[in-house]
Every structure is written in structure tokens, then in C-alpha cells.
Amino acid sequence: MSPDLHVPGGMGNELRRSKQALIPNPQYFNLDNAETPGNRWLGHAELLAAAYMGRDPASYAEAMKSVDAKLWSDTCQYEIDALHKNDTWELTKLPPGRKTIKYKWGFKLKADGRYHVHLVAKGFMQIPGIDYDETFSPVAHFESLRLLLALAALEDWEIQQMDVKLVFLNGVLDEEIYMEQPIGFITPGTETKVCRLKKAIYGLKQASHTWNLQFHCKVRFTTDYEDHGFGGIG
């Protein structure tokens, strides 16, 4: 600052504030979201209740109490049937000295109106060196996908998309992992038994790793089969 410039005492470092009255943005502050008809502010409980409306169920009990309980129940049954069809676990007594990991039902109402449910293991309860060792699995980079699509457009290739349902259920586990039976689907007379996992399910630390190993073995077997002149596998 120039020494010739005179600044009144006490004014050099003060921020100048506008004396104009502040007007709240009507997009965020209006009768619909900030005040009740009685000109009363919404309390914390009311705000939480408003945020709660329209969200997906957070638990199985909550889903069974919702207005869509029948649809959620049918979707849960579909998930359980898929797990049994893939021979995902077997019921057994928990061996001495072993602990079970817990699970969680995940509920999601898709944008297209489909009800989606996953039974997910709580992998954070797994113990390294006991419940799992290796967790690495390769991931395709988006740049690689863009390159393939660009080559397909350039060479006029045909692109096909394939979706493997319940993909992680195809990975065979080497570790001995026990999980609690899912609520709502406990077979009468087996209440004291637990699920000994034979296949990986979503949420396990090694789920993607075991699926990659399974997929790699299948691809390698197919390649070796064709290299020896036996043709493709139908």
C-alpha cells in the first residue's frame, strides 16, 4: 500500500458488509420444504421422516412391513432359490473354535420398476489368513473398452453383450467359511445349524478373486481344447 494513501484508523483490515436484507433462495426455502402450513419450522424428526419416504428398505424386517412386502418376499425367495440351485452352501453344525460371519439383505428398487435383492455376506468380519488369503482380481480399464469399441466401429465388427446372473456364485471356495442362516428362510428343525459356504457370495473378501480363477480356468480349458484340433465347445 502506498504510504501516501491515508486509511482511517481501525478500517484497514475490516470486511465491508452489505446492509441489504438477505433474501433466501426460493428454490430451497419455500412453503414446500422449509415451513409447515402453520408457519412452523420442520423439526429433526420430521426432516428424517421426509428423507425416509421413498427409500429402499434397510432390512428384511423393514421390507416385510412395507406396502410392497409381497413383491419383496417373492424377490427374496428368488434369490434363495438361486443360491440353492448353485449349491452355494450346506447346513452343518458349527465346529468348535470357529465363528460365523453375519449377512445382510440388500434391497433395491430399480429405475425400471424391477425389485432387486441380494444376500450379502459381511466380509468385514472375515479374518485374514483364516477366512481368506488372496483377494486380487484384474479389472478392465475404461480406456481398454473405448479402444475395443473404436476398433469395432472402424472395422465394422459385431458387438454382443453378455450378462452372467449371480456371477460370484460360480466361484468355488477353498476356505472353510461359516455364515448364519438368513432370516425368513431358516428350515424348521435346523435353527442351530449354520451355512458352510461352498461357493463365494457377494460381500466376501475373495469373491471376485475366486470368480476370476473360475473364469480363467474355463477360458484356458476352452483354448487348449481348440488348439488341439477338437473344435469349439458348444
Q: In words, what does this structure look like?
A:
With 234 residues, this protein is of the alpha+beta class. The chain has one domain. The protein is built from 5 helices and 5 strands; from the N terminus they run αααβββαββα. A hairpin with a 5-residue loop joins β2 (103-109) and β3. The protein starts with 43 loop residues before the first helix and ends in a 7-residue tail after the last helix. Residues 230-234 have low confidence and may be disordered.
List the helices and strands and how they pair.
Blueprint: H1 44-52, H2 60-65, H3 69-85, E1 89-92, E2 103-109, E3 115-121, H4 142-155, E4 172-179, E5 194-199, H5 207-227
Antiparallel strand pairs: 1-5, 2-3, 4-5
